[in-house]
Structure formats: structure tokens, C-alpha cells
Amino acid sequence: xxxxxxxxxxxxxxxxxxxxxxxxxxxxxxxxxxxxxxxxxxxxxxxxxxxxxxxxxxxxxxxxxxxxxxxxxxxxxxxxxxxxxxxxxxxxxxxxxxxxxxxxxxxxxxxxxxxxxxxxxxxxxxxxxxxxxxxxxxxxxxxxxxxxxxxxxxxxxxxxxxxxxxxxxxxxxxxxxxxxxxxxxxxxxxxxxxxxxxxxxxxxxxxxxxxxxxxxxxxxxxxx
Length: 224
Fold this sequence. Notes:
The protein has 224 residues and is an alpha+beta fold. 43% of the residues lie in helices and 19% in strands. The protein has a 5-stranded antiparallel sheet, covered by helices on one side. A 3-stranded antiparallel sheet has the order 8-9-10. A two-stranded antiparallel ribbon has the order 1-2.
């Protein structure tokens, strides 16, 4: 672990280049120094790993983006659970986490991989466990949950201290049971990323529409 931490400070961070353009979209990764490899990018942070440490990952927050200290607290409360990662070290806006292997449900749709019901049930149980630990599962969607050997995993827990209601997981489950299982799963259809992105953006627009209409109405009343 000490060698990995030293490598992060000396080899990774000085040459790692990421940018967060829009907090609602994944950050842009401009450069990852070799031999580090990029695993993924969320709205606030990127995840990389070193080939010499294949069971660990380093999560680095983009400059100016919040959430680092909150995520450290979330992992402290979660402790050890098979559906979640564990934080082994945290400092200077990066975390060293236990690596979770698998394919996001978002990528499963693109690849035409069958998502068994057990995956959804595992994630439901994991979220209930988090609630019992005083957390509030938030922003749980197809990019933040994975399937590995037919079991469900929760990848991103950075927003689990947010107390406001979030229906993303419930909405995803409705789509799974009403559309995916009866229609898409039997056919093994591969859905292109551009179609998935259209669905994602349309969903985000519809979810935010009531608040936007409310703001618009308030602005009109003030002008009147």
C-alpha cells in the first residue's frame, strides 16, 4: 500500500489531466500517464488502476468538484459488504478503493448481455443495508451499478449522504420489469450508446421539468 501511495503522488497526480465541464455529464480525461489505466469516469471523478495492483483502484476528484470528504464518510459507515467497495486510504482528493469487477448495467444493455433478476435483488438489498447504516442511497442508475457473475454491485456511493429523495433506482427498476424483462431480454438486443444517451438525457429532462416549470412560474409572478 505504501508503494502505491508513493506512486500516486510521484507518478500519477503530477501528470494526470482531467476536466469537469458539466456536473451532469462525465468528466473529460485528457491524459493518463503510463502504465496507469483508466477504468471509468463519473460526473465528479475518474477511476484508474496500476497493473501492479490489479485489485485496487484510485479514484481522483476533478478540480473544483465537491464530494471527496462526503465519500470518505460514506465508506466509513458502510464498512464491509459484498456489494460495495471499501476505502483503504484517502488523502489529497483521491481515494484508494478495493476494486469491483464487472460490467455496468448501462454497458450490459449496449452489449446485449442478459441481466438476471438476482442482480436487481442484490442491489436492492445492498441499498437497504446502506439505509440501516444511516445513509440515503442517491443517484443510483445504470452507470453506477454493475453485474459480476450474475450478482449485483453498487459502484458509486459518493452521494449517499444526500437526504433529498431520489427516484432513479426505482425508475430503473420499473424499466427493468416493465420493458427489459418481457421484451428486450428474450431478444438479446444490443442498444447503441447513442440511443442509451438519448434515453438518459430525455429522462433527466423529464425529471427536472417540474422544477423548471415551477421556477418559470415564480419568475412570471415576480414580473407581474
